[in-house]
Predict the structure.
Amino acid sequence: MNGATTDDVVPAAILLADGTLFEGEAIGVYPADGIARGEFVFNTVLSGYQEVISDPSYAGQVITFTYPHIGNYGVNALDEESRHPHCSGVVVRNLARRASNHRSSGNLGTWLADHGIPGVAGIDTRRLTRHIRDHGAVPGVFGTAPVEELRAALGSARPTDGIDLVAGVTDPEGRTVPATGGATRRIVALDLGIKSTMVRELARLGTVEVVPAGTTASEVLAREPDGVFVSNGPGDPAAVQGVASELGALLGEVPVFGICMGHQMLAAALGARTYKLPFGHHGGNHPVQDLGTGKVEITSQNHNYCVDPETLTGAEVTHVNLNDGTLEGFRCTEVPAFAVQYHPEAGPGPHDSRYLFERFADLMDERGRR
Amino acid sequence: MPRRDDIESILILGSGPIVIGQACEFDYSGTQACRVLREEGYRVVLANSNPATIMTDPGFADATYVEPLVPGVIESILDVEKPDAVLPTLGGQTALNLAMELHNSGALEERGIELIGARSNAIATAEDRALFSEAMEEIGLGTPRSGIAHSMDEARAVIGEIGLPVVIRPAYILGGKGTGIASTVEEFEAVVRNGLEASPISEVLIEESIAGWKEYELEVMRDHADNCVVICSIENVDPMGVHTGDSITVAPAQTLSDVEYQEMRDAAFAVLRRVGVETGGSNVQFAVDPADGRQVVIEMNPRVSRSSALASKATGFPIAKIAAKLAVGYTLEEIPNDITRETPASFEPVIDYVVTKVPRWAFEKLPGSTGELGTQMQSVGEAMAIGRTFPESLQKALRSLENGRAGLNCDPGESAFDAVPTPELLERSAKGTPERIYEVESLLRRGVSIEEVHDASRIDPWFLDEILAIIEERRALAARGKGRLALEAMDPRLWRRAKRLGFSDAQLSHLWEIPEREVRAARGTAGVLPTYKTVDTCAAEFAAETPYHYGTWEDTTEVAASGRRKVVILGSGPNRIGQGIEFDYCCVHACFALGEAGYETVMVNCNPETVSTDYDTSDRLYFEPLTEEDVLGVIESERRSAAEGGGSLAGVIVSLGGQTPLKLADALPPELVLGTPPRSIDAAEDRDLWGSLCARLEIPQPAGGTATTLEEAMQVVERIGFPALVRPSYVLGGRAMEIVYGNEDLERAWAAIAAEGSLGREGGLSATRPVLIDRFLEDATEVDVDAIRDSTGEVLIGGVMEHVEEAGVHSGDSACVTPPVGLSDATVAVLEDYTRRIARELDVCGLINVQFAVKKQQLEGPEPDGATGQVFVIEANPRASRTVPFIAKATGVPLAKVAARVMCGATLADLRSEGVLEPPIRDGHVAVKEAVLPWNRFPDVDALLGPEMRSTGEVMGIDSTMAMAFLKSQLAAGDDLPREGTVFFSLADRDKATGALAAQVLVDLGFRIVATSGTARFLGAEGIEVDQVVAKVTPGAGGDDGADGVELISSGAVQMVVNSPRGRGPRADGAHLRRAAGSAGVPLLTTASAALAAARGLVEATKGEMSVRSLQDWHARSRGPLGADRS
């Protein structure tokens, strides 16, 4: 695995829809036919691989890590962002043979296999990343099957466009998480693929009732929340059914805070459109400026789609991405609601933007006083 | 917020001479700052005493002061230049301390000058241990727990709180005396007792021991709008206990989970805010307990540091440049990221490779040093390597070091520890030493478990496992057999696997016992060739504009095609004693000159401290080791780039980077070597060829011969007589060079050279490179000449430098003066004539340095007009010498630039007409170069000058007289010579006559003289009054009143010591005197000629204040109105 120092490695290859081939070695676990598929994206984080892999927003995607050494500090239960990973695969340059960290309870390679995630190691991940950068997120097949078989299976590889992936990741059972700091607020969190870190951050503000994506506005209001939170989620926001309209019914009734897909859903509720970025934002180092304070925060990002600010009405832009000028956050002018495209909860990533949770608390409290 | 308009001119403080702990990195940061601030339209004034730096080139600032970095002198500069602000954060600790002194004395305030970059209170909080601890506690961050005790009872109370183990540090002691670690109560009581005794105020600091914890650094930046970013995280392979500058370090951090990393990031920003660093770069160091992840803050530097240079090179983010912009008011998001050009600087670089830095030490040059690493930095340089993985970058870094190793193993050095039993080797690996990484390799290779090695060395198991991967691959490669059999057993997949783990062709050659060339050929046939990836700050997320490359073994290469005519310049590798910043200066100037002349410049180097490895310096930078394989790879890549783009490769410059690139000349295609042909380099090095060349030219040289055995050496000295100079060939810095006065000395010197050889260190003895033995000319004056010859045969004499110390002291350690005030015009004419003849005979195209020894007709003082001394040529080197930058500053001739152009075919006449070359300045001022020695870092090493170079850096004094220039050079080197008091003399017989001249001058100035008995007798006979006669060490052994020299010096009764030894070797009493002077901080002169120069300087000092003048002003004045017009 480590550029392979033992001879018992199993060769594996990646074949992208445009015919580009990459050769490496198999890691994780494959279906019996030795063929897996997904949309290839990259992530530039230097640490936090377990959080990334277990982030439900990656459903349908194969994550290429640009940092070559992955798995160094092992895996542990605290860093799980969901009950199990939803991504379609993992591509690394080097998978650690040995994990070293006091927090570690296991090895990443074993963890991938245990969760049924296939992957490829030994890949020139920089070449693959440049390819995705130049040609956009691209579907492809990968696996231990011979290249001819992979080529034959290429037709089954699909991009994430137009597919509602939320249904596959939302927890139909829902759950209630008690407040951690003695806070008495009640927050309903709409789970479009919610990350554990978001729940943890919300629990500092109050009791969190996590509800599935299909929950209606009246069901939400029946819980008498102080605020509604709309989570991150995978795939194409335009393909997600029902959420935006239910959200529209909540606006003005209760303060709303959205993150990532939650941001896109809130925008959609206001009638805005989304478009697909060339290769998305996936990393932990994007500069975002808070237009209110002028301050720059370094943010954690994971999205392929973006809200078109030209189509946004009833809201003002509060945050922009300094790398490409895209919309990163807005605030409704008529109703108590705001959202950001990036991940203030971090997990993984910097904590610069956690103040947004305080802003949500303030909004809820303001509402409560009225 | 845009740049500040309320300030117009800024004084940048440099870092002075290269010393251990403060090297080229501050030339890099200072040069960037000068460039940026001038681009922004500010008037830049620069103060730096180091002439070898690029920043002190007159073109980089509006006014450049090569003057001593002491408060009084800086105040004079402030009065002349009247800057609005002083920027101290890019000149290391020297500049920071200087700024604090200027602030504390009120010198800045009374002149209305602002300190920018860091406020005084921030500097104070960061620098003062107690204030810092308090500040950290205030913001809730952990520091090691500690307490202060004045008695054993108090000490017991302290450990009652913090427990064992602890480090005990006595207060107010020098050199770590009385410091210790205690793990048991018994040890604790013993160390505390010693410590209380050692401390003059009976005070010890007791601190929780965090030795063995993991060590990290974060390089952070903050702007005045409070935007904070981490540029780079660094993890040390060596655990806590070894200074980070002496540790093998890796970027980014490898074994921290994101949760821990973010906690550290938050803490680093909190530190910056609390300490009060308003703008600029800082580094914050952390220790992490591997058992539970507890993080403590160790220290922070509120300035650009060596780590920031490393972080800049590791990520491509130019910290110093950005820090300079932040200091004048910009915020991070207003500054574009140079590399992507599309994204702002307000981001955190991510990388998709691993960077490893390995320090380089010089213990072999400092007999008596322990070689054990600790909390005080001892390395003199470092190499950095970039690879896609840790094993690859580690092996690349190790072969970049040029310490005779080809990587981690698979070379002759790998068997060094084979005979050491495992328990002993485990014990050794617990101590930080230069050998530890190889000891660990040896342990793992013999099958000792990672757990055991970790328990002993405290190196993180992840690193050990990656090292084990190298070892397992070594095993697999060894199993392929030997010779051609092995080559045949390799397939492309296997080749690639080995290369990806960092194995060089040289390692495979050793392992398979087959020439390296054949390994390379077989690999090429298998189609496994290096690929070059780009350092782009963003892991390929955005398209990068900056061609900053490293070699690795992947699918595709990213070097762009080019239609231009290229020149590859090989750099000088890691700094070491004898080869440092001077050569980087030359390479950088070659880049600038050739760039201006329209060439595409390609730099290859592996030293992260330097200006040459700034991606802005050349058109294309390859951060690669300077080995045959790596350099050939770069050349191939550039040929491909030229072929694809319709460009061409003009050639490779090997003669500007010292011995490192020169040694590679033979491995390159001969038609690509620009300038002097390699055969001339050989002719100058080869004893027989050189001897016959001198004979042909009728130039006298000292009698000499060569030897490969001790018997032959004995025969040579029988013929030429003692004293003799013994040295290996092809070395720089006089490595292992000695003056021998008898057979016993010769045998010892021979054994030393032979021992070096067996370790495979550079300059070791081998049959193809014999030892050179020459008659040593006592009492001769040494002279250096730097010259350039062009393809038409015209020779430009750049400068003639007369050494202050007599022949026998290495030229790099000797002070020298230009113009040569002590030589007659007639002698100088002979020196120049010989230089021209030698340059012509060697067919030099480019630089040549010739060393001469002149036997003057009289012992001291300037030669009378018309008198010609007897001139002997000692050696010639057809390459850039260490003095090229000094000459450029002293005479105004940019020798390195001129040489680079000449090597590419321009003639001196061309360059004159282009205006690149102006006539050298010969009159109007005198410049003195003085060496700076590392004695204060190595209290156990004898502070003696000899034929082996020991200095780490240099300073320059420039003024209208030799005496004042010398005085300035001493002040700049750290010796503030006393204006009154007592001078202690103890001289070897041959120095007594010169010493008496010096003593007379000092007595006339009102100094009292104390001397040892023999010296006192001689001085008395010369009519010089000696106030006190003392024994050197033992009371009563010759002293009149039983006083002891060491006691006298230690008591503070002496203000200057003049002690000259005879020959080399442990002359115990002299060594004690010198050590006493070192500990007491008393200026020490170890040659009579230096004492005389100092005495004359002091005479000059009594005539008035030290005045300051910029280089630009000196050059314009000396060139006269014509020069001034050309501005």
Remarks:
- Chain B touches chain A through 64 residues (CB under 8 Å).
- Residues 758-764, 1035-1040, 1064-1068, 1121-1127 of chain B have pLDDT under 50 and may be disordered.
- The first strand of chain B starts at residue 9 and ends at 13.
- Residues 258-275 of chain B form the longest helix (18 residues).
